């Protein structure tokens, strides 16, 4: 059984509460994708969520088909609805699967995975990087990011952060507890408020494999890619030499 329903409860909140992170991340992703060649194949996005990365991909790699894998049915609904009004949205095929279940096309022009690498177990990641490396044209970018914690340590809840939509404020906070030497369990708590009074609450929990940017870059290098770390972003490029 998979755990892909874990994000469903966060569907009314994720887009609103993620927008601010993309103010800085959006241009950095666009820079990393700048050299991607739309003629080289499809762009694959892993864990597309509500499509905040998808819209940047569409703008950065014009004309390329995009495969957006999103395993949560609730988030897929948000994504598909947003694509209908998005410039270039018709180029996106939404795949109802997790990263390891994507039926990879023969060639990939780029791969993007934002705020999702921790959902992949170490063995799953390593196999995926190898499969991706074999399909990338030389220079084609793989753009991933990492999130704290880097090690399996507890993360205390931060003060709830809220975004207003109409008359209501949607807010969220989260905390994590270690569950093993390389993993934590996140507990996200959300609330909808009207004039400071809670009108709805939701909670989402999921496991998360911890990883540093340097550790992720080392995995990608091991898979045959040329990797660079830029803060929380790891950009790896196809070498054109598939591993045997
Ligand atoms: C924190 S959200 C990030 C969404 C989006 N990439 C963004 O940055 O706004 C993590 C996403 O990863 C998805 N996810 C969970 N497990 C996954 C898996 N095994 N493979 C791919 N995506 C997964 C979740 O459904 C969710 O959409």
TrEMBL record:
Residues 43-139 form the Methyltransferase domain. It comes from the Bacteria. This is Methyltransferase domain-containing protein. It comes from Pseudonocardia kunmingensis.
């Amino acid at each position: 059984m998979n755990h892909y329903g874990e994000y469903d409860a966060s569907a009314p909140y994720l887009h609103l509460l993620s927008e601010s992170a993309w103010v800085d991340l959006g241009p950095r992703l666009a820079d990393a994708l700048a050299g991607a060649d739309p003629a080289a194949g499809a762009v694959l996005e892993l864990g597309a969520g509500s499509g905040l990365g998808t819209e940047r991909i569409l703008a950065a790699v014009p004309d390329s088909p995009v495969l957006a894998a999103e395993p949560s049915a609730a988030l897929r609904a948000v994504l598909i609805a947003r694509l209908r009004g998005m410039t270039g949205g018709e180029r996106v095929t939404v795949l109802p699967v997790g990263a390891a279940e994507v039926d990879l096309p023969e060639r990939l022009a780029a791969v993007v995975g934002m705020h999702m690498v921790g959902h992949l177990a170490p063995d799953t990641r390593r196999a995926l990087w190898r499969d991706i490396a074999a399909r990338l044209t030389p220079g084609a970018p793989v753009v991933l990011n990492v999130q704290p914690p880097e090690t399996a340590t507890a993360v205390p809840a931060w003060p709830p952060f809220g975004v207003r939509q109409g008359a209501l404020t949607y807010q969220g906070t989260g905390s994590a507890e270690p569950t093993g030497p390389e993993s934590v369990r996140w507990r996200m708590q959300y609330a909808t408020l009207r004039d400071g009074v809670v009108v709805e609450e939701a909670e989402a929990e999921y496991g998360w494999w911890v990883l540093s940017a340097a550790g992720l870059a080392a995995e990608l290098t091991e898979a045959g890619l040329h990797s660079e770390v830029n803060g929380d972003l790891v950009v790896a490029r196809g070498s054109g030499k598939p591993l045997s």
